[in-house]
Amino acid sequence: MAIRIHDLQPAPGAKKAKTRVGRGDGSNKGKTAGRGTKGTKARKTVKPGFEGGQMPLQVRLPKLRGFKPHNKTVYQVVNLDRLVELFPDGGEVGPDRLIEAGVLHQKELIKVLGSGELEGVKFDLKAHAFSASATAKVTAAGGTTTVVDKKTGEALGE
Fold first, then answer.
1. CA atoms within 13 A on the CB side of 60
2. Which helix (H) or strand (E) holds 92?
3. What predicted TM-score, i.e. pTM, was given to this entire model?
4. Residues 126, 131, 134, 136: is their CA dihedral positive or negative?
5. Distance (Å, rounded) from C-alpha 27 to C-alpha 19?
6. Parallel, antiparallel or unpaired: strands 155-157 and 144-148
7. How would you classify the pairing of strands 144-148 and 123-127?
8. In whole angstroms, what is the distance from residue 112 CA to residue 99 CA?
9. Could you read off the pLDDT of 123-144 as tens digits, one per residue?
């Protein structure tokens, strides 16, 4: 015998009748309609987060001060003493040589800071930014500092 569409019905116990609340004491949920007795929640709905007149949590917590700029320029910092350690012979040092040496990743901006001394080592440095002390120390040792464009990587000037 084949099953026909008019013979299809849900399995026994699969469909449960909706509970009608507040329809007299004879029903299961008649007198208080499942809300318990007395109190605000038995009489009306309460906003989520309402604490009965107590200062709410979102007002009690301290506020976050200040802001974080979305376009902040973040530099990978390299100090002069680290450059002397990596390149004891000096010479021309730019982003490419620093990537080869494993100092920084491919797409990071470089700023050279003046921590450390150049003991007779002459550098021709190319970076995206220099501190004033780094520029002074490199030029005093007989080297040059060249600022490189952040997007193209081309030299902008000394």
1. 8
2. strand 91-93
3. 0.58
4. positive
5. 9
6. antiparallel
7. parallel
8. 14
9. 999 999 999 999 999 999 999 9
